[in-house]
Amino acid sequence: MKLPRPLYSLYESRLASSLKEDTLPHHVGVLVDGNRRWARQFGASTADGHKAGAQKIVEFLRWCADLNIDVVTLYILSTENLKRPQEELTALIEIISGLVTQLQDEALCRIQPVGALDSLPPRLRDQVECIAESTANIPGPHLNIAVGYGGRQEIVDAVREVIRDTRDRGDSVEALAETLSVDDISARLYTRGQPDPDLLIRTSGEQRLSGFLMWQSAYSEFYFCEALWPDFRRVDFLRALRNYATRQRRFGN
User: Fold this and answer.
1) CA distances (Å), 81 to each of 59, 103, 119, 230, 242, in order?
2) What's the confidence (pLDDT) of residue 1?
3) Catalytic center at which residues (predicted)?
4) 20 phi/psi in degrees, rounded to 5
5) Catalytic, out of 66, 68, 81, 183
6) How many whole angstroms separate alpha carbon 69 and alpha carbon 241?
7) Is the pLDDT at 252 greater than 90, yes or no?
8) What is the CA radius of gyration of the chain?
9) Under a CB-based contact definition with an 8 Å cutoff, are residues 111 and 132 in contact?
10) Single pTM value for the model
11) Is 144 a catalytic residue?
């Protein structure tokens, strides 16, 4: 049963007040899934679904800022998405470009693109490559915007960088094989220098990671939500945070 608006607002307020700052995740990753299915429900175009999803991202980042979430990583465009029909992909690229411009204009967060940026159309690649410097001094969450991103490709790119660095030092590959460590890979990921995600959320009811932050999520907590991304509400986010706060994290121990 859907609660009347006043009761719903009261419930949301009480839920928010029940969260303790020391139980909140420092880094939240979200697979923003369900835009196309949302559009089909309303007989709208796929582009309309992606537009609604983009506006939900803006809203979500405001929630994160209010809750002092330090780092947010949003899976927006995967390497597999780049294989979609050209008409849909062209519209999606334009929507992502508009989203990045809006985030920059509204100074909502510091933005860092993560992904194989060379795989992006040149105009979007140039735009996101410039965004980190122009938003570097903005207060609020640090946003990793995952575009042209694939978890396997990220690990491959990290290993390639390790090999190149080894070569540039004049060391042998044989020596590298003896000394290669987890830290060597972590230090060369797209998210290098950042804490691993504490909580990963996926909307739309799907219960898989689809290659998102494969290395970094080794000890992350997962939360799967039935809501399609454009329908994801602040109360859904608060429920995810409440659920996270009840978990006992063991980190393999």
Assistant:
1) 23, 22, 11, 18, 32
2) 46
3) 33, 81
4) -100, 140
5) 81
6) 11
7) no
8) 19
9) yes
10) 0.93
11) no
Q: Please give the Cα distance from 42 to 98 (Å, whole number).
A: 23
Instruction: Indicate whether 115 pLDDT > 60.
Output: yes
Beta strands in 93-194 (DSSP E): 110-114, 142-149
What's the pLDDT band for 220 if we cut at 50, 70, 90? very high
pLDDT, mean over the chain? 93
User: Euclidean distance between the first and final Cα of the chain, in Å?
Assistant: 42
Question: What is the reported pLDDT for 248?
Answer: 79
User: Is 33 tagged catalytic?
Assistant: yes
| Per-residue model confidence (pLDDT) at position 3 | 55
Which of the 8 DSSP states describes residue 196? P
Residue partners of 176: CB distance under 8 A and separation at least 6: 162, 163, 166
The mean pLDDT of 213-241, rounded to a whole number, is 97
Q: At what angle do helices 86-106 and 46-66 cross, to 10 degrees?
A: 30
Does residue 245 carry a pLDDT above 90? Answer: yes
Phi, psi of 232, rounded to the nearest 5 degrees: -65, 125
Cα(222)–Cα(100) distance, integer angstroms: 27
Known binding-site residues for substrate equal 34-38, 50, 78-80, 84, 202, 208-210
Known binding residues: 33-38, 50, 78-80, 84, 202, 208-210, 221
Residues 6+ apart with CB under 8 A from 112: 131, 132, 142, 143, 144, 145
Query: Which residues are part of a known binding site for Mg(2+)?
Result: 33, 221
d(CA 247, CA 226): 20
